């Protein structure tokens, strides 16, 4: 284990994240359709950078902290995939073409970066109170049951309907602009509406995601950096796999099982201590089984 001040790890994270975001802005400065091959390459870069940073944490601060990083990253990445279905629904509701979707996702996810830090700072402090573990455990158990039995009538659709009813939105897009003049009145465009709804849906999503990651670690460096690496890579992942998302028909059951496991881990914290390595193995195992089962079912044409 190296002896490196934690402030160095924060500086490295900020510099790397900003550099990648700037590169992303340069590469996507024009509104255009993003081919799957290019999106896969960008996704590989984001995952690769996260793994390298995780290795840095591992060797700089020990195996416990390193494994916590990888476990939190896998957890957030898997839960984020479920959120991609929400993006598809939102873009479909407002008929947003492929070439404008990246811009909407960029601004929506950028806001999430800020709110996640606030929520995690609060969450880390709350976890110092033992009773909070039981509260989070109950919330995660509820989230797990909701995920497993969800029939597709998500709260995000309700958010979209509410926002559409109460905000003056132009009936059509004006390129990739967020504001336009329609019938002599300044209105927001459907594209900005998508950004707002994506941001609000992420706040709802964070109510499940953050307690789950806090159950794995309360180290702010570990949980925030792993969380943000997963979130920032979400845009490229969306374009890489959105065509095959419907094939992951059993994903919600896998995520529900993972949330139930983490809920049990919190609720039984006084009786059973689950090593972080075991948690990582269970999460990866459930995800692998879920993905393989989904792909096999899709190949055989089994109904969901």
Feature tags:
11 helices, 3% strand, 304 residues, mainly alpha
List strands and helices in order, with pairings.
Elements: H1 6-27, H2 36-61, H3 63-93, H4 98-126, H5 130-148, H6 155-166, E1 179-182, E2 185-188, H7 190-214, H8 220-232, H9 234-241, H10 251-267, H11 276-300
Antiparallel strand pairs: 1-2
Helix pairs in contact: 1-8, 2-3, 2-8, 2-9, 3-7, 3-8, 3-11, 4-7, 4-8, 5-10, 6-7, 10-11
Commentary on this structure:
With about 300 residues, the chain is mostly helical. The protein has one domain. Helices cover about 75% and strands about 5% of the residues. It has eleven helices and two strands, in the order ααααααββααααα. It has a two-stranded antiparallel ribbon. Strand 1 and strand 2 (about 185-190) form a beta hairpin. The longest helix has about 30 residues, at about 65-95. The termini are far apart.
